[in-house]
């Protein structure tokens, strides 16, 4: 039986049917979260890998991260331009922490040429950065450069994924960053506990993958904060949607760390996977305060796609029971 896997195409506005892209990714992945994200990276309609947003000067700089409850490992790459699938290298970094030489502290995050050289030494074929720049990205870059005052209307669409199998869980994300970003800028992807988190305690497993304003998600460690709350949550007493909304408001939207920031930029969304084998509770929650969030999930031979829309950027969340998608035995 394949693992359960869910992916989202980012929080923002999606002119393309990216929910179809997400469904294709989870169906082809055979339960492998890295393969699911690679499918998104290879599609020009998503802001990661091929089709990533361009910097102010028209260059491409990608980032990706992977984390697993197994060994609590984390790996990330940033400011890379010659990796066709950054998520593959992020996962390699994470997994090498379990099998690498214990005499040395293994790197967790690598950026720029150092990340690319590390990957090449391990058999990854580097590509020409030009080959990753899509016509869509070039068109949006020209439009944004021409009307810089409207840059904030572009999507902040880091893609993300969560997976579960036999109690263990993973989370991953990949991004080209915001359009017209300053070169060298790092988003929430490379921040441990910012964009993604995966943990397992006793009978409970939680995996989270977020998208939105990277600087603010990273500053509030939103993924880790959500996960810690749910790991201490009694699913028989409260509704998971209420719990997530409370954390979102208290720890992010009204966070004291973001008190002086422009409220229009305090945006986030993503997927939360929660499984409690003891109470036989398994749920996938989508949430966002952006215009849209598209996603899909697959497990036990069943797949589903969804496009969530919010009016006036109000907080909106949906919960999906996974009893037919996950084996709790």
Automatic annotation (TrEMBL):
The record marks 157-158 as: Cleavage. One of its GO terms (cellular component) is cytoplasm. It comes from the Eukaryota. CDD domains: Taspase1_like. PANTHER family: L-ASPARAGINASE, THREONINE ASPARTASE 1. It comes from Loa loa (Eye worm). The active site is at residue 158. This is Threonine aspartase 1. One of its GO terms (biological process) is protein maturation. SUPFAM superfamilies: N-terminal nucleophile aminohydrolases (Ntn hydrolases). Belongs to the Ntn-hydrolase family. Gene3D superfamilies: (Glycosyl)asparaginase (3.60.20.30). GO terms for molecular function: threonine-type endopeptidase activity.
């Amino acid at each position: 039986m394949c693992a359960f896997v869910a992916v989202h195409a980012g929080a923002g506005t999606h002119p393309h049917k990216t929910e179809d892209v997400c469904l294709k990714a989870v169906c082809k992945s055979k339960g492998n979260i890295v393969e699911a994200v690679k499918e998104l990276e290879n599609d020009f309609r998503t802001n990661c890998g091929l089709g990533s947003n361009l910097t102010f000067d028209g260059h491409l700089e990608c980032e990706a991260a992977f984390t697993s409850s197994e060994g609590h490992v984390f790996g990330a790459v940033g400011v890379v331009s010659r990796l066709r699938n950054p998520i593959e290298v992020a996962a390699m970094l994470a997994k090498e922490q379990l099998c690498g030489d214990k005499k040395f502290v293994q790197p967790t995050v690598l950026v720029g040429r150092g990340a690319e050289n590390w990957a090449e030494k391990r058999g990854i074929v580097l590509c020409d950065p030009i080959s990753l720049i899509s016509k869509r990205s070039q068109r949006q870059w020209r439009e944004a450069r021409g009307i810089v005052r409207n840059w904030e209307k572009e999507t902040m669409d880091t893609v993300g994924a969560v997976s579960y199998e036999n109690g263990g869980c993973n989370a991953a994300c990949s991004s080209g960053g915001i359009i017209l970003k300053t070169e060298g800028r790092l988003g929430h992807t490379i921040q441990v506990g910012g964009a993604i988190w995966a943990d397992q305690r006793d009978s409970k497993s939680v995996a989270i993958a977020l998208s939105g304003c990277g600087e603010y998600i990273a500053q509030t460690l939103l993924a880790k904060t959500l996960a810690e709350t749910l790991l201490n949550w009694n699913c028989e007493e409260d509704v998971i949607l209420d719990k997530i909304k409370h954390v979102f408001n208290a720890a992010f939207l009204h966070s004291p760390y973001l008190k002086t920031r422009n409220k229009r930029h305090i945006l986030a969304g993503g997927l939360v996977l929660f499984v409690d084998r003891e109470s036989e509770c398994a749920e996938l929650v989508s949430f966002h305060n952006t215009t849209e969030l598209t996603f899909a999930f697959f497990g036990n031979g069943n797949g589903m796609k969804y496009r969530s829309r919010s009016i006036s950027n109000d907080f909106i969340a949906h919960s999906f029971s996974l009893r037919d998608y996950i084996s709790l035995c």
